[in-house]
Design a protein that fits this description.
single chain, alpha/beta, 10 helices, 14 strands, 25% strand, globular
Length: 337
């Protein structure tokens, strides 16, 4: 075990939370620094699941049990690719708290199984470093009131043949999460259609979601969207919020007349809202902070106080449901994807 396990151990106190980082030496560096600032946290070491020399450890039940005994908390870095579902299942089963950097592409059945084990063992399972905790979005949340229409635009490269399911999750999982939290309503219907503009690969994917509270969300994603665009526009009574997730900017627009209502028609058919003379637009100040440090601090607070994390398996379940429906809608007509 010592040949593949690098130790950072400096002291041992009974109340210490012993942490093992899953990731490469490079990807765990920042975590070691950040965790050193949190009281009663001891980083035992790191282990890279993507390394071939460590494969036997995770495959061998007794070696893996030995690893689990060394810590009561496991933190999974975003760069880790070979995070087998069974590894996470066993961690939860044996009462380990788990922090995962970013959402993971698990099926609804797998998520249900992990959540059942988590409930039985009463441990904290938390996703961190997602768009939901980004400073610009947490600032925008204070201004959101009963959204009626949400428009999501994102530039990205098209999916390669046979990779559509993974592409949907990679490109839109966190955006799906944001929209569901903003709407606070269950989904009534979903429609999805790719657009082929310049070749055989889809240049843009349009997704239309209707909610039971009669609100609507529209996604436009792909290379046909202008470069550097990653934006969410939230239309609600009297105001429009423009959340620039790439530029970390937030704007709030209102009609000039106090009694006028904000019309959705201003921007659904065209994109001239930014230059509309009837609108007054203010740039809202975004309070900057270290996203990951805040998530980690919150994670250990949740362990100590038995609180519910901001991003849980329930949120990933909502994402997985939408991803599965979108994939089913698209691949029914476009099997080559």
């Amino acid at each position: 075990m010592s040949l593949i396990f690098v130790s950072y151990k400096v002291k041992t106190i009974d109340s210490m939370k012993k942490v093992i980082l899953l990731g490469s030496a490079k990807s765990t560096e920042a975590y070691v620094t950040e965790l050193s600032r949190i009281k009663n946290v001891e980083v035992i070491g790191f282990l890279d699941p993507d390394s071939k020399q460590n494969k036997s450890l995770f495959d061998d039940f007794f070696q893996f049990m030995d690893l689990l005994e060394k810590a009561n908390i496991f933190i999974v870095c975003r760069e880790v690719k070979a995070l087998d579902f069974e590894i996470v299942r066993q961690m939860i089963r044996f009462g380990k708290h788990v922090f995962v950097d970013g959402f993971r592409e698990w099926s609804t059945h797998e998520i249900e199984e992990i959540e059942k084990l988590r409930f039985e063992s009463q441990v904290v399972f938390q996703f961190g470093n997602t768009l939901y905790g980004k400073p610009v979005f947490t600032t925008a949340l204070n201004l959101v009131k009963k959204p009626r229409f949400i428009k999501v635009e994102k530039h990205c490269q098209p999916p390669k043949p046979g990779t559509f399911e993974n592409w949907i999750f990679t490109q839109l999982s966190e955006e799906f999460d944001l929209v569901q939290r903003l709407m606070q309503s269950s989904i009534r219907s979903v429609s999805a259609r790719p657009m082929f503009l310049f070749g055989e690969d889809p240049d843009m994917l349009n997704i239309h979601i209707e909610f039971h509270n009669d609100a609507i969300c529209h996604f436009s994603v792909g290379r046909a969207i202008d470069k550097n665009i990653h934006r969410i526009r939230v239309y609600q009574p009297e105001t429009l919020l423009s959340i620039d997730l790439k530029g970390n900017n937030l704007e709030e627009s209102r009609m000039k007349g106090e009694t006028e209502q904000l019309s959705l028609d201003l921007d659904i058919q065209n994109s001239n809202i930014d230059n509309n003379p009837e609108m007054v637009t203010l740039e809202r100040h975004v309070m900057l902070y270290d996203h990951r440090v805040k998530d980690l601090t919150n994670f250990f607070e949740n362990i100590d106080k038995r609180l519910t994390p901001l991003s849980t398996l329930d949120h990933l379940m909502g994402v997985a449901d939408i991803c599965e429906v979108v994939c089913e809608k698209v691949k029914r007509r476009y099997q080559s994807l």
